[in-house]
TrEMBL record:
The gene is Irak1bp1. The lineage of its organism: Eukaryota, Metazoa, Chordata, Craniata, Vertebrata. InterPro entries: IRAK1BP1, SIMPL/DUF541. Its main location: cytoplasm. Pfam families: SIMPL. Keywords: Cytoplasm, Nucleus. GO terms for cellular component: cytoplasm; nucleus. Belongs to the IRAK1BP1 family. GO terms for biological process: immune response; positive regulation of canonical NF-kappaB signal transduction. This is IKBP1 protein. It is found in: Cytoplasm; Nucleus. It comes from Asarcornis scutulata.
Length: 238
């Protein structure tokens, strides 16, 4: 006769105290429990590039044409709350045959996506085809990713404690202090960084781009809690 298959491992168990803690020894029992959490965070930054150029027979005319539009772009962004340090301008001046060519690119970083849309719509309306505006590249700052990691760890610990409380309530016991909390596994996926090259199709909508850049994190923790019986609880009440 074949032996029965072993029971699957359980994430929660009541076990004799294995640490020489006076409180745990008095109670004589511990609750071992694992818990997890999964959170997501949308991007907190977007970078837009505005490209423009001019080709003229005179060098001054080519420079002047580009400079006027550069000033208008910078003024429009500043007027809507974009700080100067979030704008980067690169220029390239060259001579082609008997003409002069001036090209420029303005990279603007936005933390407010509503303002980003307003600026892009204004530039499209006022400058038309004389500028080319790239689709926004959404990404996370390192601070945003660190915050997501902390939040998912705290959420996993909270879920683990809640599970332990429910088990104790079911058994008519009182949950005591945590004796051990250990982070067992953390996973991260999705999300974009500033240094990544945009690879999303131009046909994506704004919301699809934000969803495509959303970062996810999961965390699993293991905890050991002291179990206090009803008698201990009654003594405290007395």
């Amino acid at each position: 006769m074949a032996l029965p298959a072993p029971l699957p491992a359980r994430s929660m168990e009541l076990a004799p105290a294995s640490v020489p803690s006076p409180v745990a020894a008095a109670a004589g029992r511990e609750l071992h429990v694992s818990g997890s959490a999964e959170l997501s965070a949308g991007p907190d930054r977007a970078r837009v590039s505005v490209r423009l150029g001019s080709r003229k027979g005179a060098a001054g005319a080519a420079r002047s044409s580009v400079s006027r539009r550069l000033e208008y772009i910078a003024h429009s962004a500043r007027h809507r709350g974009v700080p100067e340090e979030n704008m980067t301008v690169t220029e390239d001046f060259s001579r082609l045959e008997n003409t002069y060519q001036m090209e420029a690119e303005v990279s603007i970083i936005f933390s407010d996506f509503g303002k980003m849309q307003n600026v892009c719509n204004l530039l499209t309306e006022k400058l038309g085809t004389s500028v080319t505006i790239s689709p926004p590249h959404f990404y996370h700052t390192p601070e945003a990713i660190d915050a997501l990691r902390r939040q998912v760890c705290v959420a996993a610990v909270g879920n683990t404690r809640q599970k332990a409380q429910e088990v104790c309530r079911l058994l008519g016991q009182s949950l005591g202090k945590p004796l051990l909390i250990r982070e067992e596994e953390t996973k991260e996926w999705g999300g974009h960084t500033d240094s990544q090259q945009p690879n999303a199709p131009d046909s994506l909508t704004l919301q699809e781009r934000i969803l495509n850049a959303t970062a996810y994190a999961s965390c699993r923790v293991f905890a050991v809690f002291e179990i206090k019986g009803k008698e201990n609880r009654r003594k405290k009440l007395l």
